Fold DUF4352 domain-containing protein.
Amino acid sequence: MFKTARSKVQTWITAGAGTIAALFVAGLMGAFGALPAHAPPQLPPGTAVDAGRWRVQPVRAYVSHARVHGVLLKPGQKALVLEADMTNRTAQSDKAYFDVFKPDGIALPDPMPMIALTRDATLTPELHPGMTERMAYVWPLAGDAVVPASVSFGITTEMFKPRDNLYGMPGWFNPYRLGTVTLPVADGQAQGTGS
């Protein structure tokens, strides 16, 4: 009987120590989890950046008050336009580029931009492997929307996995912000954008 009581006391002590250790570890994990995340880096403008399946180089930003690269605006609208050189780094044609750029600090009526080739105003084309194309990201805005003199554009990338966890198929997953590039914003339609 004495052995049984002693075993019970040892079990309670061991369980109590284990519980205390688990609470301590959980507390540490919670404390580290509550730390602010590091801000994505500020990328230099005019530099090509490998962003997962795309190599991107933001070129210029401006506000258009009329049709731009084939994108029609409604009466009373204007548009924030980002032109960027984009290269498909994969082995197949693709147009999964809608989420690559996102302007920060501007209330967008629709976060999904209209996208066109600048050379011929083709809307949402597939980009072929290894071919660099200049693309125009066009975000329509209300005519009275305030656009600052410079805008930061977040660049989103994805990771390639040869086998995903769900289907065992290759693909691009886990989008995250790679960094931010800040460009001055010119006002008025740039020459040659009214196609």
In short: The mean pLDDT is 85. The first strand starts at residue 42 and ends at 43. The beta strands are 42-43, 49-51, 54-64, 77-88, 101-103, 114-117, 132-142, 150-161, 171-187.
